[in-house]
Amino acid sequence: MAEKQKLNPALKLVLDIGPLVLFFAANAKFGIFIATGVFMAAVLIALVVAYVKTRRIEIMPLVTAIIVLIFGGLTLILHNDEFIKLKPTIIYVLFGGTLLGGLIFGKSFLNVLFDSVFDLTDEGWRKLTWRWIYFFFALAVLNEIVWRNFSTDFWVSFKLFGVVPLTFLFGALQYPLLTKYARSPERE
Description:
Elements: H1 9-30, H2 32-54, H3 59-78, H4 82-104, H5 109-114, H6 122-149, H7 152-172, H8 175-180
């Protein structure tokens, strides 16, 4: 079987964060409604570029794109920015809930997503999954607090300059767990 094509890490970062950067820039210059349209287009372009480079579409970006298109479309059609502000909450709850559902049924979906990146023991996958569940639910609550209590411009800035660094920091803080529960050849 042919090995799966992988994206260059720099390109993957651009495809993951690029639409959010464009959303931030368009909001600053044109406002939330134009920014929402730019965000929708950028998310679709990122999906297409990833597909062209790898000949497959990963599930998380696909789910995110579908939700962006639905809630972005509602934002534009109804001219109500609350829909695009709810989008992150729904994505975080969906991801956290999916991970939780997997654990309830005895499956770590993180293992499925990151199996080629990390080789952890079952206990390591379980602990890592619980941590990401808590993190996603915390982000959902945080998004609700920010969009309901602060200006739209603050919320957009927080998504780029708050959530992105928090996610990178949280991921980096998992390094001790990843090393502690790494599957070693002598354990097999």
